[in-house]
Amino acid sequence: MSVTTPASRAAAPPSSPSVGALPQDFGALVRQDPEISGILLAEAGRQSSTLQLIAAENFTSPAVLAALGSPLANKYAEGYPGARHHGGCEQADAAERAAVRRAMSLFGAEHANVQPHSGSSAVLAAYAALLRPGDTVLAMGLPYGGHLTHGAPGNFSGRWFEFAGYGVDPDSGLIDYAQVRALARARRPKAIVCGSISYPRHPDYEQFRAIADEAGAYLIADAAHPMGLIAGGAAPSPVPYADVVCATTHKVLRGPRGGMILCGVELSERIDRAVFPFTQGGAQMHTVAAKAVAFGEAAAPAYAVYAHRVVANARVLAAALESEGLEITTGGTDTHIVVADPAPLGVDARTARERLVAAGMILDTCALPYGDARGIRLGTAAVTTQGMDEDDMTRIAGLFGAAVRAEGDPGRLRAEVRGLAEHNPPYPG
Ligand SMILES: Cc1ncc(COP(=O)(O)O)c(C=O)c1O
User: Fold this and answer.
1) What CATH number was assigned to the domain covering residues 301-421?
2) C-beta of residue 197 within 8 angstroms of C-beta of residue 366
3) Which residue from 232, 305, 342, 375 has the least number of CB within 10 angstroms?
């Protein structure tokens, strides 16, 4: 596939924003479709001139983007390697076998399914493999950081299953395992889900396993967020404890947008059938190839260094935000996630996010584990990929505090954020 060349960069229309090196040859697109190429170039400009602090985002490598833009995007390959409904699947089979082999080796799993289109598709398939509609499931309650697939009323999970939600201790912000155990005893769930969109600490998988065994429940780890840290040895692995591990392949793992499932051999057939043909048709084979590339990258020693830096940066960011006067849930982080309550600065989370976005700091609001007010969720995966270090985190926290307090000249603040981002381009030329 095409790689960045000076010629491909020169193909950008003169009015394009400065985006540094583009990861792929946009020449054909620029020539053929100015409207869409203009949008993509503007997005590249947005990503390289602002700080991406959304905890679920990252910058995939040019190699991952090349696989995504490859001719495997044209291929239909319903089924599994060696058992497809379509002809001409030799290379698709090879790509999927490589992705499965690499995922199993990276995570020490007996079986991997790399076909789920997304994290939600992976969770859907796990439920389809293990549960019947109407079954009771215990998962982190949405107000405490549970995902939509953990029982939200508007999601298939809330519609088709009876969810009971566990929470966190109101003082420490940590998972209340006594409550999980009590709920498991009272509700006798068919499955217990551990995983969250905003919990900044490691779940105690051993304890979850013990509670699930006591209740006769399956344990499903929804490790969408920590999967990249697990790959890099910067977080404990649920693989030895959970019956099924669901994850996304983007976020810290830095692969293409998509999902994956790990399990033991005894559940492998049920999981595979739950993915295809139960919940999905043909897998996106270009994405499967890109997942293989990302798993290859995550197995390299440099990725372990990256994963540990992500956590070190998040710890420094959490401490520096606390010094700026924000309240940090659980008092810090063990992961890439920091959840901050801006209330002590006299600002609600939505106003804070607007001010931060205006200054070029892109992040989310999220539920706080106490009260009705929302907090700010940040992540360090993308800025760490850009090469930012602990000093940069302290600087980001200072810019964050100034933006939330609406201190100083907004133009100067935006210029400082832009300078920091552009000094660390996601795709250096
Ligand atoms: C814990 C958890 N589960 C599932 C998902 C769903 O992933 P997707 O958006 O790819 O469907 C997410 C995404 O943020 C998540 O954080």
Assistant:
1) 3.90.1150.10
2) yes
3) 305
- Residue 371's pLDDT is what? 82
d(CA 180, CA 183) in angstroms, rounded, equals 5
What kind of fold does domain 68-298 have according to CATH?
A: Aspartate Aminotransferase; domain 2 (3.40.640)
Per-residue pLDDT at 17 exceeds 60 = no
Instruction: Please tell me whether residue 27 adopts helix, strand or coil conformation.
Output: helix
How many whole angstroms from its chain centre is CA 105? 21
pLDDT at position 148 over 50: yes
Task: Choose one of 121, 147, 198, 284 to mutate for the ligand 1 pocket test, by most ligand atoms within 8 angstroms of C-beta.
Answer: 147
Assess whether the C-beta atom of 237 lies below 6 angstroms from ligand 1.
no
Strand partners, 263: 111, 244
Residue boundaries of the structural domains of the chain: 68-298, 301-421
Is 41 annotated as contributing to ligand binding?
A: no
Question: Residue 141: which residues within 8 A CB-CB, separation 6 or more?
Answer: 151, 165, 166, 167
Residue 231 has pLDDT above 90, yes or no: yes
> Which residues, in sequence order, are bridge partners of residue 140?
166
- Per-residue pLDDT of 286-345, as tens digits, reads 999 999 999 999 999 999 999 999 999 999 999 999 999 999 999 999 999 999 999 999
Distance CA 386, CA 203 (A): 28
Instruction: Give Rg (Cα) of the chain.
Output: 22
Q: How far apart are CA 407 and CA 324, in angstroms?
A: 13
Dihedral of alpha carbons 261, 262, 266, 269, sign:
positive
Instruction: Look up tokens 């290859």; give the residue.
Output: 296
Dihedral of alpha carbons 102, 108, 111, 114, sign: negative
pLDDT-wise least confident of 21-25, 68-72, 277-281, 373-377: 21-25
148 is in an annotated binding site: yes
